[in-house]
Amino acid sequence: MSERAITAPPPVSRRLAATDPATVVSTLEEFERWWAERHRAGRFEVDRIPLTELDSWHFDPATGNLGHESGRFFTVEGLQVRFGGVVERSQPVIHQPEIGVLGILVKEIDGVPHALMQAKMEPGNVNVLQLSPTVQATRSNYTQVHRGAQTRYLEYFTGLARGEVLVDVLQSEQGAWFWHKRNRNLVVKVDGEVPAAPDFRWLPLPLVHRLLRIDNLVNMDARTVLACLPPAGAGDAAGGARHATADILSWFTEAKTRCDWHARLIPLADVGGRTVAGGEVVDDERRRFRIIGARVTAGNREVSRWTQPLLEPRGQGLAVFVTKLIGGVRHLLVQARPEIGLLDLVELGPTVQLSPGEDVSGIEDPLIREVARGKLGRTRFSAVLSEEGGRFFHALTRYRVVEVDEDFVTEPSRDYCWVAGWQLTELLRHGHYVNIEARSLLACLRSLPS
Amino acid sequence: MSERAITAPPPVSRRLAATDPATVVSTLEEFERWWAERHRAGRFEVDRIPLTELDSWHFDPATGNLGHESGRFFTVEGLQVRFGGVVERSQPVIHQPEIGVLGILVKEIDGVPHALMQAKMEPGNVNVLQLSPTVQATRSNYTQVHRGAQTRYLEYFTGLARGEVLVDVLQSEQGAWFWHKRNRNLVVKVDGEVPAAPDFRWLPLPLVHRLLRIDNLVNMDARTVLACLPPAGAGDAAGGARHATADILSWFTEAKTRCDWHARLIPLADVGGRTVAGGEVVDDERRRFRIIGARVTAGNREVSRWTQPLLEPRGQGLAVFVTKLIGGVRHLLVQARPEIGLLDLVELGPTVQLSPGEDVSGIEDPLIREVARGKLGRTRFSAVLSEEGGRFFHALTRYRVVEVDEDFVTEPSRDYCWVAGWQLTELLRHGHYVNIEARSLLACLRSLPS
């Protein structure tokens, strides 16, 4: 599973007139050279500072909410959960009502689909640089609220002459930390020459998939877009599913109806058990995520210096997809999972999904608990990948795909359902179905030989 | 368009052993007899009372929100809209986080699909009784928070042995008046004997569709469920659409991204320009909807006497679908329309949608304005139908379907798109796409000869 264990894809003779060869990275070795060069070229410093020292960010005296003086970007507010009408708990949450653009440009070079990927710095990344989509921009970014440089390549995703749209869908992000956050996931296919800036390279799609196996390399934004792109020949693969799609939709509707939670925003000042201490928003027991301040100095971002809040989890998350072949068709055991920050509360998550701090022992089903502990099934994929480094500080999740035999338990409870891979791909045409952790794992599945 | 103008469907020889003939209503004449009898049998009084005299409903001293002491049912709260981060306006809104069940049982009798419909009283109905789904129950109803009688036929929709599920999807309701309201729309097909209580009758589906042409007869809850049921032979009709479904989804995503509104709940006390006067929540100019109190006495509801708030609009709404054949395929001109109370803000609405109090002159496009004024196109359908009588008092909308020639304007602006009828039927398998007014009109379209 280490970086060195990856077999480099066979070099291809690519040199189409329409693509500058210097902007194509075809092998793992070429990628590593470019990546090292990007590390040398970047200048990026992140310093922790007290929230009270952020520029232009203030705690509202009435609500205690932390926000930017422009009213843009995002705020840190409170979130209250009621169960059956009764208040159950509250926590801070990141509220970013804007819809951003996550877009990947693709192009055939010598018959192989290539993606224009970006070496992008984010303040919360453990390793500074991660491989990111062609465009990854909040609305505040791309409408230039902070008066920075224009977002490169944005015109391919928002203009009318943007090429063939392969993916265009709003998808949710972390329901444990975000309030109703969605981004527009786009894949656009182009034909003509697209000049690649130094931070950008055309990578064969199979190479991008292989890079997913390297810890903390392909960022969350790239993973969600990659998951939404139907694999080649996806149309032919339909059939042989354990449950008809109509039955899956009905099961999912039932799960949503069953969920008697209700979440709402409240003033951050009203969240119980949290205080602003040492310039951070922390919980009294020091066990949950905190909100910290950061000062960022960067050489190749839209603006070169800024401060912002970040959410810092304590510990590492875990997300596991249990998979098996049923009658030769790849199936995944999905879970209908309420998350307090999701717009529609319930989406389909992986078989196991534990937030940092949650323990495996909390999993009800004994077989799934054993899978989560790594004691059952064959691990087909395992890597630690980062969550969005623009909002989260060092937020890491262990992603695993575990294969089980066909005689493995059917549905362990009414919250679980075996769904064919192609059915999930179909559902990804629409929002509100597959959560970000499941989408990350679906992207990772593409790195498997099959 | 009047009740008398309807041609009765030909009587069919039905008398299947599995269905008690006395519970089947096959012709308009039979329907009228049953309906008159139901009017005689019901006892139903609605009195306006000041909100302060409601039993178990109180204004919260801190927020001014109006709620039930159980924490269940619904609340009347404030809603604030921000545009690009700046507060634009606020209004009261009905907040009902629970998901209710709207379910219609269907059954083949002598080869004709029949629906088990209910003569149901709702306090806000102009005419007391309307034709309603088999089950129309809030979660508080069917979990018996108010300790009333059990909801009839609920077991066919929530149990495991519920028959063949033809429709099962969460759909939104009025985005102008509700906050994030959704209900579960269900159609379940049964085979065996289902005894029909006096308020229930089996009606041939074509008869139900014809009854839609009668003012204020088929209620909103029935209309949304009927719209979600694919017409017979729907699968064969696919093809010949002006735009590929992928392109429609991309256009729709673009419209959502463009919408820079953000809505949030605020305390009712913080809504500007509204006061509690004369026991009602009214706006200072007396031009917008108000919240009134009602005391209800009923003979055939789960409980026989209760009080509740209702939203009373001033004036009548208008919803018009412009339709034409494109290459022989029925298309509808839909509008991507933000509504402040919708969970996902933007859904597909009819070509024209005006809330009570909004004027036709506000419609930007001159051709669509002419259609709205009734000066362009051929009216294929026109009836005044009621919105949900359990929450709204005398809320009426004029629903029209207007046919235009194939050379009628293409898309008048980027907010409009011609979508084939079968494409809308496909989208109705999912929530968050087609709004309640458009769904009402889609049900009405079923009443047309084609």
From TrEMBL, chains A, B:
Annotated TM spans: none
Domain of life where this protein originates: Bacteria
GO molecular function, a single term: lyase activity
InterPro entries the UniProt entry points to: EvaA-like, EvaA-like_sf
Pfam families from the UniProt entry: Hexose_dehydrat (PF03559)
Domain dTDP-4-dehydro-6-deoxy-alpha-D-glucopyranose 2,3-dehydratase: 29-229, 245-445
Protein name: NDP-hexose 2,3-dehydratase
Species of provenance: Amycolatopsis rifamycinica
